TrEMBL record:
Residues 21-141 form the Creatinase N-terminal domain. InterPro entries: Creatin/AminoP/Spt16_N (IPR029149), Creatinase/aminopeptidase-like (IPR036005), Creatinase_N (IPR000587), Pept_M24 (IPR000994), Pept_M24B (IPR033740), Peptidase_M24_C (IPR032416), X-Pro_aminopeptidase_P (IPR050422). GO terms for molecular function: aminopeptidase activity. Residues 325-536 form the Peptidase M24 domain. The keyword Calcium does not apply. It is an enzyme of class 3 (hydrolase). It comes from Ancylobacter vacuolatus. It holds the Pfam family Creatinase_N. Keywords: Aminopeptidase, Hydrolase, Metal-binding, Protease. Belongs to the peptidase M24B family. Residues 549-608 form the Peptidase M24 C-terminal domain. This is Xaa-Pro aminopeptidase. Its EC number is 3.4.11.9.
């Protein structure tokens, strides 16, 4: 009945090919005089989602997760993955050829230090390795008595004979009404920040930041409207946008040429060297910049300043037009969600739905809006025990029936031209056990605590993170992921630098959009996560307050499943917040849906006491 256009469920892992491909790579390494090589799951921009031509780790090992690194030596090889992917990696790679190493036990540099033979030459691609990663590798190789070698041309590419071509999706210009600020004005702000920080130039290596600063979008990777591009912004004068000219229409080129030079990406190195001449200080984004650019700056006589890009904080604090677009996108998305939830409530009890069925239905309801550009990430659709796998991605091999008296967790998002969404609901099929309702309510209480938080200007996400955990902690429970991440405006669903997390040291600022998604996961049984997006806004005026206060405005508009709530665990203030939120959901979404959905929504958003 429903189908997915933007997501696939095939398991593309090919572990049987790993041995032969590993042999070819080793032969190429030997030809180049190398004893080993690093294969990260990364492109030159450190993107979360990479184009097919940069899926080197998947091609070599069969592992298709979004994070990992392989280390290949002459006689052994390892793939290091974090806790999300240890089971997946073991299932997808040929474990006779690759040892799966949990990151929590051994980091890649530590593995290298322990396994690299003395005198060995270990290679890495400086386009795919950040300065920090390169420094760790160099220390490890030196400690092992080996030599770290930056390769000129990736040896894996030399043996990947059917490697896909780089993407050439058209670059589009951002609607000024949605951008809310012209690109020249943004660049002027960036240049003012460079002057304030006594920097001579900035290399923008993160395509999300390039897209934001130059008011452009593209389609070079899945799930995020990115043009793969670079930029060089001097402290004064015209910037340069480095983008494959084949992506630019005449109209786009003419519009961009009014405020920026346009050059092919192959000219980036030469331009960076020129900018670094005469001892200039050039800022590189420590999270995304290739170590190769730092080497070029230093060799040209300049100073590579490896730090936070000033664009990141500007981009994170959305302006009024961007926030208006985000609100509109969430109302539209809320209507699609209401249609899905009403449909699910009617169909799931019949016992015929699967995890894939749910993904296809929700994407279809979003496509029916006529405005969907893409999903913002592959939907996490977990029934019963699959819901306990935090980053579970359903495939044809793992697809599970949604059964009565189970919990069903669906985490999904959409890309609309006016905004990006990300929402998780945990749904009860049949009857929830007393334990399930207890855990559901404790997660909900943590969610409400974040949504209701009022905090002083300068507060970091780390200071708020425990608000979401306190009621779980009281029962000896917790969850292992962060409480929230930043979200872009028709950009990445995972945007830095701010987050609500034990590691979130960046102060929250007005206009930032962050997720609020506490959870609880019982391995082998069920998972619970309740997620809305929040805008950081001005806090209430409190008589006698001595600090400027901030608060959250909830963007997401979708009911929480009342059947999972143990009302005895909620305080009157929590009940009042939930009733007010549900009343708002019905007021804003009710007029946007058909009569049958509206009737369902009215019942789903009724006051808890009713």
């Amino acid at each position: 009945m429903f189908e997915a256009k933007y997501q696939t469920f095939a398991d593309s892992a090919a572990p049987a090919l790993g041995t032969a491909r590993l042999k070819r790579l080793r032969e190429e390494l030997q030809r180049r005089g190398l004893d080993g090589f690093l294969i990260p799951r990364a492109d030159a921009h450190q993107n979360e989602y990479v184009p097919p031509c940069d899926e080197r780790l998947a091609w070599l090992t069969g592992f298709t997760g979004s994070a990992g690194v392989a280390l290949v030596l002459r006689d052994e090889a390892a793939i290091v993955v974090d806790g999300r992917y240890t089971l997946q990696a073991a299932a997808q790679v040929d474990t006779a050829s690759f040892t799966v190493v949990p990151l929590a036990e051994t980091a890649p540099d530590r593995w290298l230090e322990k396994h690299l033979p003395a005198g060995a030459h270990f290679g890495y691609d400086p386009w795919l390795t950040t300065v920090e990663s390169e420094q760790k590798l160099r220390r490890a190789a030196t400690a092992a008595g080996g030599v770290l070698v930056a390769v000129d041309g990736n040896p894996l590419d030399a043996v990947w004979h059917d490697r896909p071509a780089p993407p050439l999706a058209p670059v589009t210009l951002r609607d000024p009404a949605l951008a809310g600020e012209s690109a020249p004005d943004k660049i002027a702000r960036v240049q003012a920040a460079l002057a304030e920080q006594k920097l001579d130039a900035l290399v923008i290596s993160d395509p999300h930041s390039v897209a934001w600063a130059f008011n452009i979008r593209g389609g070079d990777v899945n799930f995020t409207p990115l043009p793969l591009a670079w930029a060089l912004i001097p402290r004064s004068g015209r910037p340069t946008l480095f983008v494959d000219g084949r992506k630019l229409s005449n109209a786009a080129r003419d519009a961009l040429a009014t405020f920026t030079e346009i050059a092919e990406p192959m000219l980036l190195e030469r331009a960076v060297e020129k900018a670094a001449a005469s001892g200039a200080t050039v800022r590189l984004d420590q999270a995304t910049a290739p170590s190769l650019l730092a080497a070029r700056i230093e060799s040209a006589g300049g100073k590579a300043s490896n730090g936070v890009s000033p664009v990141a904080l500007m981009q994170a604090a959305k302006n009024a037009a961007e926030l208006a677009g985000m609100r509109a996108a969430h109302r539209r998305d809320g209507a699609a969600l209401a249609r899905f939830l009403a449909w699910f409530d009617a169909e799931a009890p019949k016992g015929a739905l699967s995890e894939i069925d749910a993904v296809c239905a929700l994407e279809t309801f979003r496509r029916d809006t006529g405005a969907l550009k893409d999903v913002s990430f592959p939907s996490i659709s977990g029934a019963g025990p699959n819901g306990a796998i935090v980053h579970y991605r359903v495939s044809e091999a793992t697809n599970r029936a949604i059964r009565p008296d189970e919990l069903f967790l669906i985490d999904s998002g959409a890309q609309y031209e006016d905004g990006t969404t990300d929402v998780t609901r945990t749904l009860i099929v049949g009857t929830a056990s007393a334990e399930m309702r207890d855990r559901f309510t404790r997660v909900l209480k943590g969610h409400i605590a974040i949504a209701r938080a009022v905090f002083p200007l300068g507060t970091s996400g780390a200071q708020l993170d425990s608000f979401a955990r306190q009621h779980l902690w009281a029962a000896g429970l917790d969850f292992d992921h962060g409480t929230g991440h930043g979200v872009g405006a028709y950009l990445s669903v995972h945007e830095g630098p701010a987050r609500i997390s034990k590691l979130g040291t960046v102060a929250l600022a007005r206009g930032m959009v962050l997720s609020n998604e506490p959870g609880y996961y019982k391995t082998g049984a069920y998972g619970i996560r309740l997620e809305n997006l929040e805008i950081v806004v001005d806090g209430p005026a409190i008589p006698g307050a001595e600090r400027t206060l901030l608060a959250f405005e909830t963007l997401t508009l979708a009911p929480f499943d009342r059947r999972g709530i143990d009302t005895a665990l909620l305080t009157p203030d929590e009940v009042a917040w939930l009733d007010a939120y549900h009343a708002r959901v019905f007021a804003e979404i009710g007029p946007l849906v058909d009569e049958a959905t509206r009737s369902w929504l009215q019942a789903a958003t009724a006051p808890l006491a009713g």
